[in-house]
Amino acid sequence: MAQIPIKMTKEKQTDKLVVYQIYTRLFGNLKTTNKFNGTLEENGTGKFNDINDKALKALKKFGVSHVWFTGVIEHATMTDYSKFKIPQDNPLVVKGIAGSPYAIKDYYDVNPDLAIDVKNRMKEFEDLVARSHKNELKVLIDCVPNHVARSYHSDKKPKGVKDFGEEDDKTKTFAPYNNFYYIPGQAFIVPDGVQPPVKVNNSYYESPAKATGNDVFSAKPSINDWFETIKLNYGVDYLDNRSKHFEPIPSTWLKMRDILAFWTKKGVDGFRCDMSEMVPVEFWGWVIPEIKKLNPNVIFIAEIYNPQTYNQYLFEGKFDYLYDKVGLYDTLRKLMEGNGNANDITSVWQNESGNFANRMLRFLENHDEHRIASKYFANDPFKAIPAMVVSSTLHSGPVMLYFGQEVGVKPTVAEGFSGDDGRTTMFDYWGVPEFQNWVNNHNYDGGKLTSEQKNIRNFYAELLKFVNNSDAVKNGQFYDLQYVNNNGQAVNYNDKKIYSYLRFTENQKLLFICNFDLEKLYSTNIFIPQGAWNLMKIDTKVPVSYTNVLSFDRESNSQTINQQTKAISFLEALSINLAPNSVTVFEIK
After folding, report:
1. pLDDT value at residue 6
2. Which CATH number fits domain 476-588: 3.10.100.10, 3.30.420.10, 2.60.40.1180, 3.40.640.10?
3. How many CA atoms lie within 13 A of 464 on its CB side?
């Protein structure tokens, strides 16, 4: 298999990455059948080759720096590929006809769904990596370190590689050198209620039963568990007070290092690491430097939900970036739904990510979360305007979009296993109508977008252009203005709905004013305290000018306004009218 030369020189890296998550199976699918529990033949699937130069050029122009291809590695599925010598999976331990991309079946292979020519599927993936790089986009894929599919067996592993579990002592519940955890003397029992939408030819047999991926040490997990996966053993004995056995280096550590090295040598530029905190931080602190010996520019992003462990996974685990879900996402979501308190944004940067905000990945959508436009969330894609601006500009760290977020994807029906849950399905073959309008028969030019879809995409395009071209957003310091404006000095400043802040460098000073109120216009004023002027090194002996450089609101959706400048004394407050659900940005000189 071809390997791409590794660059050993450390690149100068900005933290203001723009990550675009592509669900690879859905991205290029043009079929509109969308039958509930439809097969691959009925509902279709996107391919590696669908993500062509036109698509990648369009994403680069849109402002993207990194593409995260989700669902690349081969996972368990109900689709039969046995004619290609790919073992068939038992549908009793697969979720959805297409299967979950987080139930990995072979870490050294790619998903055959994604290939035009199944026999040459790895070459098609390698070509996608090369195409992405040619279009100046970095490539991320998933690392799923905590668990594998119950049917895991690598038939594509390199010569000399031992499979997970191949040398395990299955008589022991736990052994430091085992790759799995076992329940000796008991066979696995498929959870009650599992009813695959395809014919089941054989019962599923596993003895002794292995522990389930979400730390369920029982032979019979529930249907709500990750029953289709098995937990990997990194040397932690969960049934003995989580005692650690890391010397000698556990077998699972070595095997996962080799897997990450395999993909790094194929030119992959980084890994989004699934449920990172379910794997001991000591492993990450060991393996990430090992992979960076191959390529110092590879990045590691942790899916993580416990703010108490942020410091540990950044500084001991050596991750480059962490999910900011339990923090900024949760805070902004409440505001987008018409609830919440804008002052909670202050608490986020103070209490959770203030010391390492540049290393928090901000987002409003991904494959796990409800779509903004769905009835389970905001029910309107335009309600993302102030939240997306805050996500993108609050600090100098990375921001992420999920494919179709920018055209207001709105799931309204059950696709299959996923159900009607306000998400774009991970488990089923499906077409995404709003996104297909942008794909436009693989021209990727938005030729079929409605006027509303064009408007919401224009908002994202203008915002990303601003983010990528703004020195203050990419590199600047941050100053929160809530405390000086919510104490009664500012007239009509509703601090529960209005949030204001500064971003500044030596070359650029920006004032952001966000109105999260979905219905009310505010005529208010904004004070900037002496301490902020001192930090910005602005001479307050002469009038300062405020130039309106960007405005977003629900009515005009997005616009770069005619730059109007106000010159006032620094002691004066800036008077402004804030439309509902809007953002205004001023440059200060």
Report:
1. 56
2. 2.60.40.1180
3. 22
